[in-house]
Amino acid sequence: MCTLEKRGDFFILTLTGENDDHRLSPTLIAAVLSALREAKSQATRGSVLITTSQGKFFSNGFDLGWARSAATPSDAFLRLHQMVESFRPIVAELISLPMPTVAVVQGHAAAAGFGLALSHDYVFMRSDRGVLYMSEVDLGLPFPDYFSVLFRAKLGSIAARRDVLLRGTKVRGAEAVKLGIVDGAYDGEEKVKGAGMQLAEKLASRKWNGEIYKEIRKSLYPELCAILGLEVDKPALSKL
Q1: What percent of the chain has pLDDT over 90?
Q2: Strand 122-126 with 108-110, pairing
Q3: Beta strands in the chain (DSSP E)
Q4: 192 vs 235, residue with greater confidence
Q5: What pLDDT, in 10s, does the model give residues 129-139?
Q6: What are 186's strand-pairing partners?
Q7: Please, where are the H alpha helices in 17-157?
């Protein structure tokens, strides 16, 4: 499942299980959402969220096996819809979390797993293992509305969006850096984790007001906030 550890200014959210591909089942989605809300409730100036995983996967997307195990195709569709809609609040929480967020992608991040990583402010991945992959075009599945808006908001390059979403390109570390999808790619678990922690330390040292930080972030993505049901507030000067 997942764990949330508070270590000084850091909240470290880990998708656990060395042999797990961290499929976003209803159970894991609920656990991640609960962890994010717990981090939000304990946020102070200087807080930073770091999300990572164990094993060779960051997350392989929604639990399609669970959906397909339903008794009928219509029930399978309802299960998939359930996961799509229950994942929406996770994206909303990350976009509105009152602290900087860093994803340390230790391995493959596919479909909703890619979306989970991209919902963070900063993304680091390994260059020696793992790909970023939106599998929907290969599987014949449409994109949820908020996925399309998320990728438009986060991937500035039209060519990158085309290759990722319309070609199903499996993007490795060096190419992901070149396309502006991730902020750095490193060989090995320790180096990528170290890069993420080093940035987190720099961010934490700024001791920013989290409420102001989250409103600035939300203001950068008005279309995404609208589809997620997030209001963009103007914090009172008393909060400064």
Answers
A1: 93
A2: unpaired
A3: 2-7, 10-15, 48-53, 57-59, 101-105, 108-110, 122-126, 132-133, 184-186
A4: 192
A5: 999 999 999 99
A6: 126
A7: 26-41, 64-68, 73-95, 112-118, 136-139, 145-154
